[in-house]
Every structure is written in structure tokens, then in C-alpha cells.
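Hi Y.,

Following your request, here is the sequence exactly as I used it, all 53 residues.
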Amino acid sequence: MTHERDVEIERKEKKTDSSKVGVAAIKYITYLIIFFGILWFLIQYVAGPLLGG
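Below is the corresponding structure, written out as C-alpha cells. Let me know if you'd prefer a different format.
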């Protein structure tokens, strides 16, 4: 009596490449800085005079 088994070994590799994480972080931080810069400009020079500030 021989039992044949097919055993598949599944290897899961975590892709935690720190350079990719760093690039993504810098990209999103840049987006946030640009967004808040535009928002500050609009509040200071557009909404301020319109509201009588």
C-alpha cells in the first residue's frame, strides 16, 4: 500500500522594500504640502478680502 502525496510548499515573500515606501511617503507628503499651500493662498488672498478680513 503506497500512498502518494503531492505536497506543494508555498512561499510567501513580503515585499517591504524600504525604498518604495520612502518614495511613496515623499510623494504623498509633497502632495499634502502643495494642497495646503494652495489652500493657504486661497484663504489669505481670495477669501480674506471677500469676507472683509
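The chain has a mean pLDDT of 86.

Thanks again,
Q.
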